[in-house]
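Hi all, long-time lurker, first post. I run a small reading group and we've been trying to get comfortable going from sequence to structure in the token notation. Rather than ask abstract questions, I figured I'd post a concrete chain and ask someone more experienced to write out its structure so we can walk through it together at our next meeting. Sequence below, copied exactly:
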Amino acid sequence: MDVVEQIEAQIEKLDAKTFDELRDWFIDHMHDRWDQQIEADSAAGKLDFLVEEASEAERRGATRPL
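-- Answer (accepted) --
Happy to help. Here is the structure in token form:
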């Protein structure tokens, strides 16, 4: 049995309250990792094209106020 299967087996044994706590932790953790990845990509310049696209759209008048 690999690690993921072991974790799955343990999760199956959780009561509803503990499962809900784990679910909430996992969702928060997933969001934190996503935020870290976006920050790293931004710092590395991988998202610069999005800024350029938005700036170009604004110059063309293809945007609207929020």
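A couple of things your group might point at:
The longest helix spans residues 16-43.
The chain has a mean pLDDT of 96.
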